[in-house]
TrEMBL record:
The lineage of its organism: Bacteria, Bacillati, Bacillota, Bacilli, Bacillales. Catalyzes the reversible reaction in which hydroxymethyl group from 5,10-methylenetetrahydrofolate is transferred onto alpha-ketoisovalerate to form ketopantoate. It comes from Paenibacillus alvei (Bacillus alvei). Mg(2+) binds at residues 49, 88, 120. This is 3-methyl-2-oxobutanoate hydroxymethyltransferase. Binds 1 Mg(2+) ion per subunit.
Length: 289
Protein backbone atom coordinates (compact mmCIF):
# COMPACT_ATOMS: atom_id res chain seq x y z
CA UNK A 1 0.00 0.00 0.00
CA UNK A 2 1.20 3.54 -0.79
CA UNK A 3 2.29 5.57 2.23
CA UNK A 4 0.00 8.63 2.65
CA UNK A 5 1.81 11.72 1.43
CA UNK A 6 3.33 14.09 3.99
CA UNK A 7 1.40 17.36 3.95
CA UNK A 8 3.40 20.48 3.30
CA UNK A 9 4.33 22.68 6.25
CA UNK A 10 5.11 26.38 6.42
CA UNK A 11 8.73 25.48 7.28
CA UNK A 12 9.00 23.28 4.18
CA UNK A 13 7.51 26.08 2.06
CA UNK A 14 10.35 28.41 3.09
CA UNK A 15 12.86 25.72 2.21
CA UNK A 16 11.18 25.27 -1.16
CA UNK A 17 11.62 28.99 -1.79
CA UNK A 18 15.30 28.82 -0.85
CA UNK A 19 15.80 25.84 -3.18
CA UNK A 20 13.74 27.54 -5.91
CA UNK A 21 11.31 24.62 -5.92
CA UNK A 22 7.95 25.97 -7.15
CA UNK A 23 4.79 25.55 -5.04
CA UNK A 24 1.69 24.34 -6.93
CA UNK A 25 -1.61 25.52 -5.48
CA UNK A 26 -5.13 25.08 -6.91
CA UNK A 27 -8.56 25.93 -5.64
CA UNK A 28 -11.10 23.26 -4.75
CA UNK A 29 -14.50 23.58 -3.17
CA UNK A 30 -15.75 20.01 -2.79
CA UNK A 31 -14.80 16.45 -1.88
CA UNK A 32 -14.19 14.86 -5.31
CA UNK A 33 -12.10 17.75 -6.62
CA UNK A 34 -10.03 17.81 -3.44
CA UNK A 35 -9.42 14.07 -3.74
CA UNK A 36 -8.24 14.42 -7.32
CA UNK A 37 -6.02 17.38 -6.39
CA UNK A 38 -4.41 15.42 -3.56
CA UNK A 39 -3.90 12.39 -5.83
CA UNK A 40 -2.27 14.65 -8.43
CA UNK A 41 0.28 15.88 -5.86
CA UNK A 42 -0.93 19.46 -5.45
CA UNK A 43 1.08 21.19 -2.68
CA UNK A 44 -1.67 23.49 -1.36
CA UNK A 45 -5.43 23.46 -1.88
CA UNK A 46 -7.09 26.84 -1.58
CA UNK A 47 -10.75 26.89 -0.63
CA UNK A 48 -11.10 30.29 -2.21
CA UNK A 49 -13.99 32.65 -1.77
CA UNK A 50 -13.96 32.58 -5.58
CA UNK A 51 -16.52 29.87 -4.85
CA UNK A 52 -18.96 32.80 -4.79
CA UNK A 53 -18.41 33.21 -8.55
CA UNK A 54 -17.61 29.73 -9.78
CA UNK A 55 -19.81 27.54 -7.56
CA UNK A 56 -22.57 29.70 -6.10
CA UNK A 57 -23.25 31.87 -9.17
CA UNK A 58 -22.77 35.33 -7.60
CA UNK A 59 -21.16 38.06 -9.67
CA UNK A 60 -18.50 38.76 -7.02
CA UNK A 61 -17.03 37.24 -3.87
CA UNK A 62 -18.78 39.75 -1.61
CA UNK A 63 -21.88 37.70 -0.67
CA UNK A 64 -19.80 34.71 0.53
CA UNK A 65 -20.16 34.04 4.26
CA UNK A 66 -18.15 32.25 6.95
CA UNK A 67 -20.84 29.52 6.90
CA UNK A 68 -20.21 29.01 3.16
CA UNK A 69 -16.45 28.78 3.72
CA UNK A 70 -16.82 26.34 6.64
CA UNK A 71 -19.17 24.12 4.63
CA UNK A 72 -16.88 23.90 1.59
CA UNK A 73 -13.69 23.69 3.63
CA UNK A 74 -15.02 20.63 5.51
CA UNK A 75 -15.81 18.88 2.24
CA UNK A 76 -12.35 19.66 0.86
CA UNK A 77 -10.66 18.38 4.01
CA UNK A 78 -12.59 15.11 3.74
CA UNK A 79 -11.28 14.72 0.19
CA UNK A 80 -7.72 15.78 0.93
CA UNK A 81 -6.80 14.66 4.45
CA UNK A 82 -3.07 14.87 3.71
CA UNK A 83 -2.85 18.24 1.96
CA UNK A 84 -2.15 21.73 3.30
CA UNK A 85 -5.56 23.41 3.01
CA UNK A 86 -5.87 27.20 3.07
CA UNK A 87 -9.38 28.62 3.46
CA UNK A 88 -10.32 32.19 2.62
CA UNK A 89 -11.68 34.54 5.22
CA UNK A 90 -14.63 36.16 3.40
CA UNK A 91 -15.46 39.83 2.88
CA UNK A 92 -15.51 42.01 6.02
CA UNK A 93 -14.88 39.18 8.47
CA UNK A 94 -11.43 40.39 9.56
CA UNK A 95 -11.80 44.15 9.76
CA UNK A 96 -14.00 45.15 12.70
CA UNK A 97 -12.11 43.78 15.71
CA UNK A 98 -9.49 41.24 16.69
CA UNK A 99 -12.13 39.35 18.69
CA UNK A 100 -14.47 39.02 15.71
CA UNK A 101 -11.57 38.09 13.45
CA UNK A 102 -10.33 35.38 15.81
CA UNK A 103 -13.84 34.03 16.20
CA UNK A 104 -14.22 33.67 12.42
CA UNK A 105 -10.76 32.13 12.13
CA UNK A 106 -11.62 29.70 14.93
CA UNK A 107 -14.66 28.49 12.95
CA UNK A 108 -12.63 28.06 9.75
CA UNK A 109 -9.99 26.04 11.62
CA UNK A 110 -12.19 24.06 14.05
CA UNK A 111 -15.30 23.50 11.94
CA UNK A 112 -13.77 23.82 8.46
CA UNK A 113 -10.65 21.81 9.36
CA UNK A 114 -8.36 24.15 7.41
CA UNK A 115 -4.59 24.21 7.97
CA UNK A 116 -4.40 27.97 7.44
CA UNK A 117 -6.45 31.01 6.47
CA UNK A 118 -6.00 33.61 3.73
CA UNK A 119 -6.80 37.30 4.04
CA UNK A 120 -6.84 40.00 1.39
CA UNK A 121 -5.08 43.29 2.07
CA UNK A 122 -1.72 44.79 3.00
CA UNK A 123 -0.38 46.90 5.85
CA UNK A 124 -3.92 47.83 6.97
CA UNK A 125 -4.72 44.25 7.98
CA UNK A 126 -1.28 43.48 9.46
CA UNK A 127 -2.57 43.78 13.07
CA UNK A 128 -5.24 41.12 12.35
CA UNK A 129 -2.66 38.87 10.69
CA UNK A 130 -0.39 39.27 13.69
CA UNK A 131 -3.20 38.42 16.14
CA UNK A 132 -3.99 35.21 14.22
CA UNK A 133 -0.33 34.19 13.99
CA UNK A 134 0.06 34.82 17.74
CA UNK A 135 -2.96 32.57 18.27
CA UNK A 136 -1.12 29.84 16.35
CA UNK A 137 -2.93 30.14 13.02
CA UNK A 138 -0.88 30.23 9.81
CA UNK A 139 -1.94 33.15 7.59
CA UNK A 140 -1.45 33.56 3.85
CA UNK A 141 -1.60 37.19 2.66
CA UNK A 142 -3.12 38.31 -0.64
CA UNK A 143 -2.26 41.58 -2.38
CA UNK A 144 -2.42 43.07 -5.87
CA UNK A 145 -5.88 42.63 -7.29
CA UNK A 146 -7.94 41.80 -4.24
CA UNK A 147 -11.43 40.79 -5.44
CA UNK A 148 -13.10 41.67 -2.11
CA UNK A 149 -12.18 45.33 -2.80
CA UNK A 150 -13.22 45.24 -6.46
CA UNK A 151 -15.57 48.22 -6.09
CA UNK A 152 -12.87 50.33 -4.48
CA UNK A 153 -10.25 49.31 -7.05
CA UNK A 154 -12.73 50.03 -9.84
CA UNK A 155 -12.68 46.66 -11.60
CA UNK A 156 -10.39 43.72 -12.19
CA UNK A 157 -7.30 45.77 -13.17
CA UNK A 158 -3.63 44.83 -13.44
CA UNK A 159 -1.68 46.12 -10.44
CA UNK A 160 1.93 47.32 -10.30
CA UNK A 161 2.04 49.54 -13.36
CA UNK A 162 3.68 52.59 -11.75
CA UNK A 163 6.60 53.10 -9.36
CA UNK A 164 4.21 54.28 -6.62
CA UNK A 165 2.10 51.18 -7.09
CA UNK A 166 5.19 48.93 -7.04
CA UNK A 167 6.41 50.57 -3.83
CA UNK A 168 2.97 50.24 -2.21
CA UNK A 169 2.79 46.56 -3.12
CA UNK A 170 6.29 45.93 -1.76
CA UNK A 171 5.47 47.80 1.48
CA UNK A 172 2.29 45.75 1.87
CA UNK A 173 4.13 42.48 1.26
CA UNK A 174 6.81 43.42 3.80
CA UNK A 175 4.16 44.43 6.36
CA UNK A 176 2.47 41.03 5.96
CA UNK A 177 5.80 39.23 6.31
CA UNK A 178 6.59 41.31 9.41
CA UNK A 179 3.16 40.40 10.86
CA UNK A 180 4.03 36.72 10.51
CA UNK A 181 2.28 35.67 7.27
CA UNK A 182 3.84 32.49 5.87
CA UNK A 183 3.37 33.56 2.25
CA UNK A 184 1.69 36.11 0.02
CA UNK A 185 -0.55 35.65 -3.01
CA UNK A 186 0.18 38.21 -5.74
CA UNK A 187 -2.84 38.54 -8.03
CA UNK A 188 -2.74 40.31 -11.40
CA UNK A 189 0.59 42.01 -10.78
CA UNK A 190 3.04 42.91 -13.55
CA UNK A 191 5.80 40.37 -14.10
CA UNK A 192 8.67 42.69 -13.09
CA UNK A 193 7.01 43.96 -9.91
CA UNK A 194 6.06 40.42 -8.84
CA UNK A 195 9.67 39.31 -9.42
CA UNK A 196 10.98 42.32 -7.47
CA UNK A 197 8.70 41.55 -4.49
CA UNK A 198 9.53 37.82 -4.62
CA UNK A 199 13.26 38.58 -4.44
CA UNK A 200 12.85 40.87 -1.45
CA UNK A 201 10.71 38.56 0.68
CA UNK A 202 11.92 35.62 2.77
CA UNK A 203 8.47 34.06 2.58
CA UNK A 204 7.12 32.56 -0.67
CA UNK A 205 5.00 34.49 -3.12
CA UNK A 206 2.28 32.59 -4.96
CA UNK A 207 1.23 34.23 -8.19
CA UNK A 208 -1.96 34.28 -10.22
CA UNK A 209 -1.58 36.42 -13.30
CA UNK A 210 1.73 37.61 -11.82
CA UNK A 211 4.29 35.97 -14.08
CA UNK A 212 6.67 33.06 -13.80
CA UNK A 213 9.08 34.47 -11.23
CA UNK A 214 6.84 34.02 -8.19
CA UNK A 215 7.77 31.17 -5.84
CA UNK A 216 4.57 29.32 -6.67
CA UNK A 217 1.47 29.50 -8.80
CA UNK A 218 -2.23 29.26 -8.06
CA UNK A 219 -5.13 28.82 -10.46
CA UNK A 220 -8.85 28.44 -9.98
CA UNK A 221 -9.97 24.85 -10.64
CA UNK A 222 -12.81 25.95 -12.92
CA UNK A 223 -10.32 27.88 -15.08
CA UNK A 224 -7.84 24.98 -15.33
CA UNK A 225 -10.54 22.66 -16.67
CA UNK A 226 -12.92 25.19 -18.33
CA UNK A 227 -15.74 24.17 -16.04
CA UNK A 228 -18.31 26.83 -16.78
CA UNK A 229 -21.48 27.02 -18.85
CA UNK A 230 -20.17 30.20 -20.46
CA UNK A 231 -16.37 30.06 -20.16
CA UNK A 232 -14.53 33.27 -21.06
CA UNK A 233 -10.78 32.73 -21.59
CA UNK A 234 -8.43 34.78 -19.41
CA UNK A 235 -4.96 35.74 -20.62
CA UNK A 236 -3.18 34.55 -17.46
CA UNK A 237 -4.87 31.15 -17.38
CA UNK A 238 -3.79 28.00 -19.16
CA UNK A 239 -6.63 25.53 -19.56
CA UNK A 240 -5.58 21.90 -19.36
CA UNK A 241 -8.94 20.30 -20.17
CA UNK A 242 -12.39 21.29 -21.38
CA UNK A 243 -14.78 19.54 -19.06
CA UNK A 244 -17.49 22.17 -19.64
CA UNK A 245 -17.88 20.91 -23.21
CA UNK A 246 -17.60 17.29 -22.10
CA UNK A 247 -20.34 17.74 -19.47
CA UNK A 248 -22.63 19.65 -21.83
CA UNK A 249 -22.27 16.90 -24.46
CA UNK A 250 -22.86 14.19 -21.85
CA UNK A 251 -26.04 15.92 -20.63
CA UNK A 252 -27.32 16.33 -24.21
CA UNK A 253 -26.69 12.65 -24.99
CA UNK A 254 -28.42 11.62 -21.77
CA UNK A 255 -31.48 13.76 -22.49
CA UNK A 256 -31.67 12.40 -26.03
CA UNK A 257 -31.36 8.77 -24.91
CA UNK A 258 -34.01 9.20 -22.21
CA UNK A 259 -36.39 10.78 -24.74
CA UNK A 260 -35.74 7.93 -27.19
CA UNK A 261 -35.96 5.28 -24.44
CA UNK A 262 -32.43 4.21 -25.35
CA UNK A 263 -31.49 4.60 -21.68
CA UNK A 264 -31.72 2.58 -19.52
CA UNK A 265 -30.70 -0.35 -21.72
CA UNK A 266 -30.88 -4.02 -20.75
CA UNK A 267 -27.49 -3.89 -18.99
CA UNK A 268 -28.69 -1.15 -16.62
CA UNK A 269 -31.83 -2.88 -15.28
CA UNK A 270 -32.39 -5.36 -12.46
CA UNK A 271 -34.56 -8.31 -13.51
CA UNK A 272 -36.97 -10.02 -11.09
CA UNK A 273 -36.93 -13.83 -11.15
CA UNK A 274 -39.40 -15.81 -13.26
CA UNK A 275 -41.62 -16.69 -10.31
CA UNK A 276 -42.24 -13.07 -9.37
CA UNK A 277 -42.62 -12.11 -13.01
CA UNK A 278 -45.24 -14.85 -13.39
CA UNK A 279 -47.11 -13.65 -10.30
CA UNK A 280 -47.10 -10.09 -11.54
CA UNK A 281 -47.92 -10.67 -15.18
CA UNK A 282 -49.19 -14.26 -15.44
CA UNK A 283 -47.94 -15.85 -18.62
CA UNK A 284 -48.26 -12.57 -20.52
CA UNK A 285 -45.19 -10.59 -21.46
CA UNK A 286 -44.22 -7.42 -19.63
CA UNK A 287 -45.54 -4.53 -21.63
CA UNK A 288 -42.94 -2.23 -23.04
CA UNK A 289 -44.02 1.31 -23.84
O1 LIG B 1 -10.57 33.00 -4.02
C1 LIG B 1 -9.66 32.62 -4.75
O2 LIG B 1 -9.80 31.66 -5.53
C2 LIG B 1 -8.39 33.32 -4.69
C3 LIG B 1 -7.38 33.01 -5.75
C4 LIG B 1 -7.73 33.71 -6.99
C5 LIG B 1 -6.00 33.33 -5.30
O3 LIG B 1 -8.19 34.13 -3.85
Amino acid sequence: MNKPKQPLSIVKMKTMKQKREPIAMVTAYDYPTARLAEEAGVDIILVGDSLGNVVLGYDSTLPVTIDDMVYHSRAVRRGAPNTFVVTDMPFMTYHSSVTDTLNGVRRIMQEGHATAVKMEGGAEIAPMVEACVKAGVPVLGHIGLTPQSVHQIGGYRIQGKTMDDAQRLLDDALALQQAGAFGVVLELVTDEVAAYISERLDIPTIGIGAGAKCDGQVLVFHDIVRYDADYRPKRFVKTYADIGTTIREAFSSYVEEVKQRAFPAQEHVFAADDELTGQLYGSGKVQTP
